[in-house]
Write a structure and sequence with these properties.
90 residues; mainly alpha; 2 helices
């Protein structure tokens, strides 16, 4: 059994997918920046738990791309499922 792809529709499909992913990444980045800003603005350190001198060094932790990769996987799945539903509705 051979499957033939219509290159015109496939190209359009991939173009729409890449536009979707770029928009998703931009929204994800804006959300992360706004979330960090709000969390920083409302953060109150607990000075009562500290004994001794306060450190002058700020430690942010280890950077991780796992949440971004999981979000991209979810967005890709949602996009393809939406495309299937739209195709089935036509």
């Amino acid at each position: 059994m051979m499957v033939y792809l219509n290159t015109k529709n496939t190209g359009s499909f991939l173009k729409k997918y890449f536009v979707f992913i770029i928009r998703f990444l931009l929204l994800y980045t804006v959300f992360q920046i706004l979330s960090g800003t709000v969390l920083t603005a409302f953060y109150t350190p607990d000075f009562s738990a500290k004994t001794g001198s306060l450190s002058q060094e700020v430690v942010f932790g280890e950077p991780s791309s796992i949440p971004l990769l999981i979000s991209l996987l979810i967005a890709t799945t949602a996009y393809f499922l939406a495309q299937k539903v739209l195709k089935a509705a036509q």
